[in-house]
Each structure stands twice: as structure tokens, then as C-alpha cells.
Amino acid sequence: MTIEGETAVIKQASIGNIGDVNMNGNGNGNSNENIMKNRIQVSNTKKPLFFYVNLAKRYLQQHQEIELSALGMAITTVVTIAEILKNNGFVNEKSILTSTVGTKDVAKGRTVQKARIEIVLEKSEKFDSLMSASQNANGKVENKQ
């Protein structure tokens, strides 16, 4: 596992096998079959918050659920993204998994424990109507009274 900023490069497993994945990312099945296309690994240094919010909405247009994942200081960013999506009615929270990951710190020559979070969100019943309403606005500000 390598660390770039606060984002770990981890082999990804399907949601059904998430409990079977060890810290090296190896699941019980063929890892090529289980790679998720709906996982967003968040960094608190690389992209602004709303980049990830908008990316999550785009992923939800193609998938029934998405997984937000982060390490260390990026955990607060993931929680904020999930809360924005929930409070605006786009998603429902499905599960939250926390753990620690041992990573090799090359500079210090030792293993460092990092906190890790994975939040699985599923589309809400009103996701499609909310998305079409925001796309119909075409950049116009709606007057809410």
C-alpha cells in the first residue's frame, strides 16, 4: 500500500465482499471481477469539497449506490460530503465502516496507523427528480419562498 497525500491506493472489493477484504485489499474472490466502479477515494488536499459532491451525484446517475472512502485527515471531508448529499435528499445512508490501516512511512522507516472510513450511500427515491430539477434550472437561481 502506498500513501499519496491522505489517499491510500487500495485494491477495491465489491460491497458484498467488503467484510472479507483484509488490509492488503485481497478479497476471497478474483480481485479483477470485484473492482468497483462506484468508489470515490477522497483526499483533503487534492480537490475542493464540491468537486466530490458533484462527482458523487454523477456516479449516482449510473449506479444505485456509491462508496466514499478516506484515510486520516480526509475523513472529515468524507463525512461532510455524505451529510451534504443526505441533507439535500439525494441519498440515504446504507452503512459506515471504520478501521485502521498500517502504512509504511518511508521517511521515518516505520509503520504508521491511519484511521480509515468507508461510507456507503444509496440513491434516495427522489434522486432522479432532484437531479432533473437542478438540470432544468440551467444555472438559474430558484426563488424559494
Automatic annotation (TrEMBL):
Q: Which InterPro entries match?
A: DNA/RNA-bd_Alba-like, UCP030333_Alba
Which GO cellular component term is one of those annotated? nucleus
The UniProt entry's coiled-coil ranges are none
Task: Tell me which Pfam families the record gives.
Answer: Alba
Record-level Gene Ontology MF annotations? RNA binding
UniProt domain DNA/RNA-binding protein Alba-like: residue ranges: 38-89
Q: What protein does this entry describe?
A: DNA/RNA-binding protein Alba-like domain-containing protein
The organism of origin for this protein: Salvia splendens (Scarlet sage)
Lineage, please?
A: Eukaryota, Viridiplantae, Streptophyta, Embryophyta, Tracheophyta
